[in-house]
Amino acid sequence: MRVFIKPGFIVTPEEIIENKGIYADITNGRIVSISDYYEKADVEIVLPKNTIAFPGFINAHDHLLGSYWPRVGEGPHITWKTWDDALKASPLYKERSKIPNFYLYLLGAYKNLISGVTTVMDHIPHKVNDNFIDKLPIRVIKNYTLAHEVSKYDLKWGDGVDVEHKRAVENDFPFVTHIEEGFDEESLKGIDYLKQYGALTEHTVMVHGLGLSDEDLDDIAKAKAHLVTCPVSNYFMFKTIARLKEWFARDINVSLGTDSPMSGSINILEEIKFLKMAYKSKYGEDIDDRTILFMITKNPAKAFRINKDFGYIKPGYIADITIVKFKGDIYSSIVNAWFNDIEMVIMGSKVVYAFSEYEEIFKKFYPQGNFSKVILDRKERLIIGDLNTIMKQVYGFLGFKKELPFIPIELEY
Ligand SMILES: [Zn+2]
């Protein structure tokens, strides 16, 4: 089965293509060609002219187990450790733990999906997420090794930095760790520790990096290692953001992540807006909107070593596509986007989320009816799976109807 998707514009993300469509194969989920005809398509999705197709967004840092709200333990802290202690001692943490882990993962997956994210890096030991990630409506990166942080008091995830990093190199996986998330003496040694372990390489993906010195950044650039920033979470916990201009100046590959909503943003769209504002306030100049787009598409695809399949709209790539309404100009459309500007999300050539006027198309993809009608941010939507029932089950575990702004659903309960 073949599908032809015709938006107003296609952003690959390096190029802008006008007046063409994406021809994709449903059997293997991949893009066949970018062309201007659709003779052989079984499903034709003709979108309004004021829409833009981007590669499905990649959220480079989340903890899906923490898909709850509101944020807890506002800073300024000196290290993440005092925030973590505050979180775990909070009544909200107790409330959250009434929800089974699988349901927290479902909440996190839908949170990401409705903001246009199709792939997430869930930073957590494999034993926590292994059983869930195949049952979620989005992709969660499976191939990674990890540490929690590289410091003496970190949470000791995995088998140790040297073992995990070596495993990453052997399998060509990313080795993912928090780094220098804080300003105490121990946090600031993060890069030195990594170097001692021989673990600062192109397989290394480091999150936060608030305390990174110029020397550290030079070492990271030289090693071709990757950085991920989560400005909302950083600002909430530390009242500052990372030295991004200095990161960019060294051509380091930088990606954007949300962290969990218990310290970070409610979704990637909020994260982008905050990044834009905080960068301007820190440096007195704008971060380029195209740079931001790269931070949620091709940069994380490269960091997580999935850039042969994801991060681009090109023939041969998996057809994960986020369609956004045109607002301002092509690139600023992602900065200006909010829930109702996400026109449609496509994963592996199939529509998984859209406005309800696309119902006939949904029926073609899901003749068994594995999708539901929901009201999100006051608009009727179609979405893969049964989100209404999931939300009611979550309310059931809690014993009350909990408002979660990252899934702004209207529901009788
Ligand atoms: Zn984190």
Provide key terms for this protein:
9-stranded mixed sheet; 413 residues; binds zinc ion; Urease, subunit C, domain 1; TIM Barrel; alpha/beta
Overall shape: globular
Helical segment count: 15
**Fraction of residues in helix:** 25-40%
What amount of the residues lies in strands?
A: 15-25%
Description of the structure:
It is a single chain. This protein is α/β, with parallel strands linked by helices and 413 residues long. It folds into two domains: 114 residues, Roll (Urease, subunit C, domain 1), CATH 2.30.40; 247 residues, TIM Barrel (Alpha-Beta Barrel), CATH 3.20.20. Helix content is 31%, strand content 24%. The chain has 15 helices and 21 strands. The strands form four sheets. A nine-stranded mixed sheet has the order 3-2-7-16-17-18-20-19-21, covered by helices on one side. It has a five-stranded parallel sheet with strand order 11-12-13-14-15. Strands 5-4-1-6 form a four-stranded mixed sheet, with no helix packed on it. β13, α7 and β14 form a beta-alpha-beta unit. α3 crosses α15. The longest helix has 16 residues. The chain binds zinc ion. Zinc ion binds next to loops.
